[in-house]
Write a structure and sequence with these properties.
It catalyses: (R)-pantoate + beta-alanine + ATP = (R)-pantothenate + AMP + diphosphate + H(+). InterPro entries: Cyt_trans-like, Pantoate_ligase, Pantoate_ligase_C, Rossmann-like_a/b/a_fold. This protein is α/β, with parallel strands linked by helices. Helix content is 38%, strand content 20%. The protein contains eleven helices and nine strands. The chain has helices spanning 7-15, 34-46, 64-69, 74-82, 95-98, 118-121, 125-140, 152-164, 194-199, 201-214, 219-231; strands at residues 3-4, 23-28, 49-54, 88-91, 144-148, 170-174, 236-245, 261-269, 272-279. The strands form two sheets. The chain has a six-stranded parallel β-sheet with strand order 1-4-3-2-5-6, with helices on both faces. Helix 10 (201-214) runs antiparallel to helix 11 (219-231). The longest helix has 16 residues, at 125-140. The protein is globular. The structure holds adenosine-5'-triphosphate, pantoate and beta-alanine (BAL). Beta-alanine (BAL) binds next to loops.
């Protein structure tokens, strides 16, 4: 499996393939797990050639400790990808390769999708995501690009990016892959103790109960209930719980028929920040 570290090499490699082959892109920050593998396998099944990018993008981190502690293990990632017979190209550039001396995010107008939840609590996060993803689209020029619903708000931002920048790529959403206890798979789970990783199934169980309540209770009542659940827990600190429609991501005030809603959550378990979400209707 080819490992490519520079844009120039990648360009050469992609140009050596016939242009009528379908090209898929799976952007990741590495420390691969079964959630990533599901994206890669879907990409393999729908394209002739797949590029998996592995790049811990500094401009999307608002917290330097989080960036420093982000799990990284390129050789293990390569071993995991090596199992696929199809041609998967790994693109793992250095920070200098992607950003010259000016490591700053571009600024985008995401029509306020970036003003809530992850955007509210992670300053400039989505400008950083937009900056790297736009660059990856420009370098790889994929037909299809695969993103997980675990980062549902990010998926909405990417759809907006593609629309506003007029980028010719199909964005393919992929369902959330979970551990046995319901915890959404995430590279940051590696930073949890074994005990905490088991206990963290609590986050998904809370979302499931919120979903059950959605039929009969108001968003305000459900939010109150979730807050109280977390106040009773010493192991977790709730950062936000929000119910929003999936188009605007505006917090739900009054339910509207035919609109789709999701519940979104961010929680600290020890000093590890975890996010999750669930479809409510
Ligand atoms: N459990 C999962 N199910 C489905 N998709 C996932 C899952 N985890 C990550 N992804 C998707 O994989 C892609 C790369 O994500 P990334 O490398 O940031 O991993 P991650 O597990 O989300 O890490 P972290 O949340 O700790 O940053 C994103 O599109 C993300 O939504
Ligand atoms: C899309 C992405 C690879 C951009 O760095 C990242 O935000 C992620 O892994 O979800
Ligand atoms: N998958 C989300 C990327 C981040 O937390 O920065």
């Amino acid at each position: 499996m080819p490992l490519i570290k520079t844009k120039k090499e990648l360009d050469l490699k992609l140009n050596s393939h016939s242009s009528d082959k379908k090209l898929g892109l799976v952007p990741t920050m590495g420390a691969l797990h079964k959630g990533h593998m599901a994206l890669i396998e879907k990409a393999i099944s729908e394209n002739d050639l797949v590029v998996v990018s592995i790049f811990v993008n500094p401009t999307q981190f608002n917290n330097t400790e989080d960036l420093k502690k982000y799990p990284r293990d390129l050789s293990k990632d390569l071993e995991l990808i090596d199992r696929y017979n199809q041609e998967v190209i790994v693109f793992a550039p250095s920070v200098e390769e992607i950003y010259d001396e000016n490591v700053r995010p571009k600024r985008y107008d995401f029509n306020d999708l970036d003003k809530v939840m992850e955007g509210e609590f992670r300053d400039d996060h989505f400008n950083g995501v937009g900056t790297i993803v736009e660059q990856l689209f420009d370098i790889v020029k994929p037909d299809n690009a695969y993103f997980g619903e675990k980062d549902f708000q990010q998926l909405c931002i990417i759809n907006k990016l593609v629309e506003t920048q007029d980028i010719p790529v199909h964005i393919i959403p992929c369902p959330i892959v979970r551990e046995n206890n319901g915890l959404a798979m995430s590279s940051r789970n590696e930073r949890l103790s074994k005990e905490m990783r088991l206990k963290a199934g609590f986050i998904y169980r809370t979302l499931q109960t919120a979903k059950k309540k959605f039929g009969t209770k108001s968003a305000l009542k459900i939010k109150e209930w979730v807050k109280n659940q977390f106040l009773k827990e010493d192991d977790f600190t709730l950062e936000y719980f929000e119910i929003a429609d999936i188009e605007t991501l505006n917090p739900l005030k009054r339910k509207v028929k035919n609109k789709k809603y999701r519940a979104f959550i961010a929680v600290y378990a020890d000093d590890v920040r975890l996010i999750d979400n669930i479809a409510l209707n």
